[in-house]
Design a protein that fits this description.
With 443 residues, the chain is an alpha/beta fold. It folds into two domains: 193 residues, Spore Coat Polysaccharide Biosynthesis Protein SpsA, Chain A, CATH 3.90.550; 168 residues, Cation-dependent Mannose-6-phosphate Receptor, Chain A. The protein has eleven helices and 17 strands. The chain has an eight-stranded mixed sheet with strand order 9-10-11-13-14-15-17-16, with no helix packed on it. It has a seven-stranded mixed sheet with strand order 3-2-1-4-6-5-7. Strands 8-12 form a two-stranded antiparallel ribbon. The chain is elongated. The N and C termini lie far apart (129 Å). The relative contact order is 0.09. Keywords: Membrane, Transmembrane, Transmembrane helix. This is DUF604 domain-containing protein. InterPro entries: DUF604.
Length: 443
C-alpha cells in the first residue's frame, strides 16, 4: 500500500497567496468605505453648511395680515387701513360677515381685498350681553392661515381701526426667530381691563403677531378649541385660551398699543417708551423720547421725535420726565388705575410745560432736520426765564438704523441744547450716548 505524506506548506511558498488575499481584502474595505462613509461625511458637511447659511432678512413680503371688520363699520373705517396699507407690498384680507353695499371683493388701489367669513352659527355663545360676532372675529386667525399664501413667516392680526406702521412692525418681528412658536402682542393700558380679561392676553385692538409654524398648528385645532369657550366675552380671549392650551404664552412687545384711553392722548404719545413705532420718514425714531437739559435756564427738554417737544421751566429728574402727563382718561369711567406710571397735570395752564408740535421735516447729506412750533399761545405772563418765549425748536438727527442686537437691547439716545440757541429759537442735536454717559442736569 502506498501512502502519500501531506507535509505543511513552507512560509516561503504561502507568502504570494497571503499578499493576494490581503490586497483583495483592502480593496473590498476601500469600496465599502467609498460607498458608505464618504457620501455620509459629505452629506453631514453639506447639512452643516445649510444650517450655517442665515435666512434672508424679514420683509413685508413675509407678512400676511388678517383684519377683522364688519359690513357696517368697514365703509367708515376703511380709511384707517388706507393710511398704512401698501397694495403692491402687502398681502392679506379684511374679513366681513357679508358684503356692504357698493363694494367689491377684489383689492382696490389702496385697500386689501375683502373676504367673507365662514358661517359660525353652529358654535355656542353664552356670554350674557356680549356679541356672538366675537366667534367670527376669533376665526379670522384660522381663515387667514387658510388663504394658503406662500413664503410666509408671520401672520399679523388687528381690527379695522388698528393702525400699523409697516416698516417698524417688520423690524420688530425680525428680532424673533420666525421658525419658533411665537405669540407677540401687548395688553391694555388700564389695570382693570387686564384684571378682567388677562394680563397675559394680546389685545386685538393693538394688533398681535403669530409666527407661521404656530399659526398653522393653531388653525388646525382652533375650531375644536372654540367649543370649550362659549362663556368668554370677546375674540381675544378665545385666541389666547387656545394658544394657552398649546402651551404658548404671550411675548409682551411694547411696540403694540391698545389705546384703551380717551381724550387728549398727547401726554402718552410725548412719552412713548423704547418700543418701536413707525413712520415713512425716519420710522425707527418716530415718538422715541429723548431728554436733555438747558443748564443756563435750568429747563428740562423732552423730545418725542416726529411728534412734539415739551419744555419744562424747571429741573426734573429723568425718571420723572419719562412719566406721561395725564392729559387723558381711562376708556371706562371708574377705571382710574393705569398699567404705567403717570405724572399729574398742573391745574394752572401757565404752569404746564410749553409744547411744540412738529411742523416739517427735511433731510440732506448732513442728516435730518425737524422743525417744531409752539402751539396756540395760552395768554400767560412771559419773562426772560420762561420757555414760553420760544417760538420754534429745530432738531438735528441722523436716520436711526437699528440692528438686531440694538432691537433686543435698546438704549435711549442723548441730546444736547446747542449754543446756537438764541432768542425765540432753540436748536437741539440728538446723538448716541457715550458708553458711560448719564442723562442728568450737569452743573
Amino acid at each position: 500500500m502506498n501512502f502519500h505524506h501531506l507535509s505543511p506548506k513552507s512560509p516561503t511558498s504561502s507568502r504570494p497567496i497571503n499578499l493576494i488575499v490581503i490586497s483583495f481584502s483592502v480593496c473590498i474595505i476601500y469600496l465599502l468605505v467609498s460607498l458608505v462613509v464618504v457620501p455620509t461625511s459629505k452629506l453631514v458637511r453639506f447639512s452643516a453648511t445649510l444650517q450655517d447659511v442665515p435666512s434672508s432678512p424679514t420683509a413685508l413680503e413675509h407678512v400676511v395680515f388678517g383684519i377683522a371688520s364688519n359690513k357696517n363699520s368697514w365703509p367708515k373705517r376703511k380709511d384707517y387701513v388706507r393710511l398704512w396699507w401698501r397694495p403692491r407690498q402687502m398681502r392679506g384680507c379684511v374679513f366681513l360677515e357679508s358684503m356692504p353695499p357698493n363694494s367689491t371683493i377684489s383689492a382696490s388701489d389702496s385697500l386689501p381685498k375683502i373676504c367673507i367669513s365662514d358661517d359660525t352659527t353652529h358654535f355656542r355663545y353664552t356670554y350674557r350681553g356680549g356679541l356672538r360676532s366675537a366667534i367670527r372675529v376669533a376665526r379670522v386667525v384660522a381663515e387667514t392661515v387658510a388663504l394658503n399664501y406662500t413664503n410666509v413667516r408671520w401672520f399679523v392680526f388687528g381690527d379695522d381701526d388698528t393702525v400699523f406702521f409697516p416698516d417698524n412692525l417688520v423690524k420688530t418681528l425680525s428680532k424673533y426667530d420666525h421658525e419658533l412658536w411665537h405669540y407677540i402682542g401687548s395688553n391694555s393700558e388700564i389695570y382693570m381691563q387686564n384684571r378682567f380679561f388677562s394680563f397675559d392676553m394680546a389685545f386685538g385692538g393693538a394688533g398681535f403677531a403669530i409666527s407661521y409654524p404656530l399659526a398653522k398648528v393653531l388653525a388646525k385645532v382652533f375650531d375644536s378649541c372654540l367649543e370649550r369657550y362659549p362663556h368668554l366675552y370677546g375674540s381675544d380671549g378665545r385666541i389666547y385660551s387656545c394658544l394657552a392650551e398649546l402651551g404658548i404664552g404671550l411675548t409682551h412687545e411694547p411696540g403694540f398699543h391698545q389705546i384703551d384711553i380717551r381724550g387728549d392722548i398727547s401726554g402718552l404719545l410725548a412719552c412713548t417708551s423704547n418700543g418701536t413705532l413707525a413712520a415713512s420718514f425716519d420710522p425707527h425714531r418716530l415718538l422715541q423720547q429723548t431728554v436733555c437739559y438747558d443748564r443756563w435756564f435750568s429747563w428740562t427738554v423732552s423730545v418725542s421725535w416726529g411728534y412734539a417737544i415739551q419744555v419744562f421751566d424747571n429741573h426734573l429728574f429723568l425718571p420723572d420726565v419719562l412719566r406721561p402727563q395725564e392729559t387723558f382718561s381711562p376708556w371706562k369711567q371708574g377705571s382710574a388705575l393705569f398699567t404705567f406710571n403717570t405724572m399729574g397735570r398742573h391745574p394752572d395752564r401757565c404752569r404746564r410745560p410749553t409744547v411744540f408740535f412738529l411742523d416739517n421735516v427735511s433731510s440732506g447729506q448732513d442728516g435730518i432736520k425737524s422743525n417744531y412750533r409752539r402751539m396756540i399761545p395760552d395768554n400767560c405772563t412771559i419773562d426772560m426765564a420762561s420757555p414760553k418765549k420760544i417760538e420754534e425748536i429745530i432738531v438735528f438727527s441722523k436716520k436711526l438704523v437699528l440692528d438686531s442686537k440694538q432691537l433686543q437691547a435698546p438704549r435711549r439716545h442723548c441730546c444736547d441744547v446747542l449754543s446756537s440757541s438764541v432768542g425765540k429759537l432753540m436748536e437741539i442735536s440728538i446723538r448716541e450716548c457715550k458708553d458711560d454717559e448719564l442723562i442728568y442736569m450737569h452743573p
